[in-house]
Amino acid sequence: MFDPVIAPSGTLLGLLQRGRGDGTLHALTAPRSEALAALNHCVLRDPRHDWQVENRSLYYARLYLDLHGGLEAIEAHLFDPEDVLDTDESRTGLALAVLGHLASYGRQDALHLLRRYAAQGANWAWALDELALRDDDAGLRSLAAPVLARFSADAEGEAELAATVRDAFEPRPWRLWADDPRPAVATRVRAAQEAGSFDRWQRQMRPTGPRPGWSVQAVFDWAQQGMDRGAALHVPAARCLTAVAGPEDRPEIVRAARDGSDGARCTALRYLADTADPDALDLIEAAAADGSTAVVDAAVDAFERMRSVAAVDRARGWARRPDALGEAAARVLACRGGTRDRDLVLAALREAVRGEGPDATTLWTLVDGAGRLGIVCAAPVLRHVYRETASSHLRGRAARALAATDPSFATGFAVECLWDCEETTREIAARHAETGDARVVDRLRRLAADPAEEAEVQTAVRSRIGPEGTAV
Question: What does pTM read for this prediction?
Answer without folding.
Answer: 0.89
